Amino acid sequence: MKAIFIANNKGNIEYVYGKKNIEKIASLVDLDTEVYCEEDIVASPEKFKDVEIAFSTWSMPGGGELKLTSYLPSLKILFYGAGSVKYFAPEYFEKGVRITSAYAANAIPVAEFSVGQILLANKGFFQSALVAKKKEHERALKIAGAHAGNYEAKVGIVGAGMIGKKVIELLKPYKLDIYVFDVFMSEEQASALGVKKCTLDEIFEECDIVSNHLANVPATVGIMKKEHFAKMKQNATFINTGRGAQVDEDGLIEVLKEREDICALLDVTIKEPLDENSPLYELENAILTPHIAGSMSNEVRRMSELMVDELERYLAGEELQYEITAEKLAKMA
Known about the structure:
By secondary structure, the chain is an alpha/beta fold. The protein is built from 13 helices and 13 strands.
């Protein structure tokens, strides 16, 4: 079977797949080890008429007016070594092309990042570190001491998809009470996970930590509003590694200005990067990171390894573990 790599940023293929996994793929299929961008394929369509398998990652072409699938008439399956496929998947589904994604591998570092933030936030690390650097030792101690710590604290998980469930799993060794808001989770599923299912209002009212892991779908846009942040517990922390669009950002800013006791750890915002005049830059109780929770550095290899595993299943005629369908896509980030 003839296979190619596709990415508009060609360097992404080497970064994500690496020499080892490229060689493994080449041992399994007839792989052209060149990396092709959209322009290459459109310029020489005859060269790609027999391609049955494609591998990609970040900067996958698609989502625009040009339908790349019309230049790949024999394409049967796309192995996407990254997370979300929302922006390009519909075009491939229309042509009957199967897609499998490394979203499960990308969920791991996001969950690890979130758990690290949860544990540190429960100790008041973020606010006390800023104050301690100002040489205000006693005030820093007071801030840290006002937080719940990591024994019998209440942690709210907003969205129990793959990432949310992984966060819950990684928190199991700690003596924490886990609350979950997820419209798709039944009481039986919550009981099996050892968590308490509750409303979004209850999460914000009762939890020391609120960590967002909702899927990025129309129903979740702006779902966390000013009134939710206003009712947060004293010294509570809001963590967002989901999507900025799920937050009423102006409302959050207003509450952060009014309540210095609460803190927001934002790895994602509505606009990335923020406008230069955003108040979030100035607020000491807003901690910003540049969308780093997902796979980076050595972590990206996990995504391509998963795609190699999926290729082996595909060639053996076995069921794919991480295939994306149109129905599944509607519920995913």
